[in-house]
Amino acid sequence: MLSEGTSSQMPHPVTNDTAVVSHDPIDPAPVRAVAGLGLTKFLDPLRIPPVIKVAAHPKPRRLEIKMQATSAKLHSELPPTALWAYDGHFPGPTINVRRGQNLRVAWRNAISGHLPLTAVEVGLQNATPDPGRDGAEPLAAVAALPPWLVVHLHGARTGGGNDGWTENAVLPGEAQLAEYLNDQPAAALWYHDHAMAITSLNVISGLAGMYLIRDDEEDALRLPSGTHEVPLIICDRNSTPTSMASSPGSSSTSRRSCRRSRRSSCRSAGRSRSSTASSGRT
Ligand SMILES: [Cu+2]
């Protein structure tokens, strides 16, 4: 097993340590190899997802975002890892919208194939602190799951029909249509998959991104912006050289799927504002 445990999440997450964002340039040499994992820390620049800026307009704006199967190098010393991702980006594109702007998003399920991860169940008595599967056999039932997806905008004030409830998932070829009024104060929200009972698996596969609501009150604060504002999502991953591996127990069902996904998979860490351009490395 190669990597990994906790990772920093901007673009290319999996490293062997918790997220590190530094405001000062970090000299990559001398290179610091991580004992036991063989990955060099602080080697890769922090990658920032693309931004979708929704222009303010009196009429509703429309957006289509595809859930796609893709692959990405999570660390430059690892081979590409299979992922599911919004518009092919992991994390997904950062959506930037003004308060009160009506935004209608078609979240299109364009994924074919099966989950790009291997799920295992490891008993506590057999668990080790090392990354990997601890010798457990992959769960066949999880491997056979279809891409059944629904997007929840975490922290948004929405009506029930637009909230991405867990049972409202769609299969490949279908789209989930959601209308976001964005009638709330400026905030750093995040969107993620929310499908009943398999939220953690879908989110671990890569389905998460950030959504920023702006307003005049925030503008008046004159906070650092542009390249000086870095959206940051921190994820916890266990991966083999070519695929994600779910945490022990993450295949179990839970009705508290939203809370569950935050704990076991991914969560928004908000925005980091620096007086210098970001030089964080993962
Ligand atoms: Cu959530």
SSE topology sketch:
Elements: E1 6-9, E2 32-33, E3 40-41, E4 51-53, E5 61-72, E6 81-86, E7 92-98, E8 103-109, E9 117-118, H1 140-143, E10 151-154, E11 175-180, E12 187-193, H2 199-204, E13 208-214, H3 216-220, E14 229-236, E15 238-239, E16 244-245, H4 257-264, E17 266-273
Parallel strand pairs: 4-7, 5-8, 7-13, 9-16
Antiparallel strand pairs: 1-14, 2-3, 5-6, 8-11, 10-12, 12-13, 14-17, 15-16
Annotation keywords:
282 residues; Immunoglobulin-like; five-stranded mixed sheet; four-stranded mixed sheet; 17 strands; disordered C terminus; binds copper (II) ion
Separation of termini? Answer: 20 Å
Q: CATH homologous superfamily - what is it?
A: Cupredoxins -  blue copper proteins
Sequence of strands across the biggest β-sheet: 4-7-13-12-10
Bound molecules: copper (II) ion
Q: How many discrete structural domains?
A: 1
- What does the average pLDDT come to? 77
Relative helix content? under 10%
The CATH architecture classification is: Sandwich
Count helical runs.
4
The largest sheet, given as strand count, sense and whether it forms a barrel, is:
5 strands, mixed
What's the SSE pattern?
EEEEEEEEEHEEEHEHEEEHE
Radius of gyration: 19 Å
From the spread of the alpha carbons, the general shape counts as globular
For this structure, the CATH topology is Immunoglobulin-like
* Unreliable sequence segments: 1-35, 247-267, 274-282
What is the CATH C level class, in words? Mainly Beta
| Strand-pairing-aware structural class | mainly beta
Strand-residue proportion: 25-35%
Number of strands: 17
